[in-house]
Design brief:
Layout: H1 27-31, H2 48-62
Length: about 60
């Protein structure tokens, strides 16, 4: 099983009611929940290969 480090999208705060209806939820319970959906994490940085390909495509457009 993967380590779930991100809180669920339904998680509000520690010892508060979850938006799924669970009472007094903490991160331990949230990570083991069957309805767990992680929050969106920051966008991955664009790879050098993708940047170069984008530049090539842009250059080829005007040639």
């Amino acid at each position: 099983m993967k380590d779930r480090t991100q809180p669920c999208i339904y998680y509000v705060c520690k010892d508060a009611d979850c938006r799924k209806g669970y009472v007094k939820v903490d991160m331990k319970k949230c990570k083991n929940c069957p309805k767990y959906q992680p929050r969106k994490v920051t966008k991955k940085p664009e790879s050098v290969r993708a940047k170069r390909q984008k530049d090539k495509d842009r250059h080829d457009k005007w040639s």
